[in-house]
Design goal:
Elements lengths: L13 H10 L10 E6 L4 H13 L3 E4 L1 H8 L6 E2 L10 H6 L3 E7 L5 H14 L3 E3 L2 H10 L11 H9 L4
Helix pairs in contact: 1-6, 2-6
């Protein structure tokens, strides 16, 4: 799934620009809490460093069974959570209790897409930030834990700074 809307964020780094773009969508990415991660097999190797970074930031990582088995090979401390279609307590219970602060849910097509769709719908209903691509997750995590000074500038101001080689 790809987004259909467009927002713009300008910053001195990609992480700052991305952070501002996310803020413009009225989402606030929290810097602590519980993160749900469920990733298709093809992308599992790409999330190892991301999960290490999230753990170092102090997040609690909840993952589905397949993702947990993979991450535990790298000695990462994660907690297994059942999928929505499995017996309770499962992912849905954590949603009802408003426990998640951020979700990384990357699936392939087929039967897993229905579970993924439910997760995205419930995340949206509960105003929980959710990434559905590995590139989105990388960008989001690069912007977490940075204390960006939020300065709003017009395009004209930025154009003038560029002309003066100040930006």
């Amino acid at each position: 799934m790809r987004s259909t809307g467009e927002v713009m964020g300008i910053g001195y780094t990609f992480a700052e620009a991305f952070y501002k773009a996310i803020l413009s969508t009225n989402f606030y990415i929290k810097t602590k809490g519980i993160i749900l991660i469920s990733v298709k097999n093809k992308d599992k190797k790409l999330i190892v460093d991301l999960v290490k970074k999230l753990i170092s930031y102090g997040f609690i990582i909840k993952v589905t069974y397949g993702t947990a088995k993979f991450l535990q090979k790298f000695k990462l401390v994660v907690t297994i959570v059942r999928k929505i279609t499995e017996k309770r307590p499962n992912v849905f219970n954590y949603f009802k209790n408003k426990r998640y602060t951020y979700i990384i849910n990357i699936t392939k097509r087929g039967k897993t897409i229905n579970n993924s769709k439910l997760i995205r719908i419930v995340a949206l209903q509960n105003n929980i930030y959710c990434n559905t691509t590995i590139n989105g997750a990388i960008a989001t995590i690069s912007s977490i834990k940075n204390n960006f000074q939020i300065k709003v500038s017009s395009l004209q101001e930025l154009y003038n700074l560029k002309k003066l080689n100040l930006y």
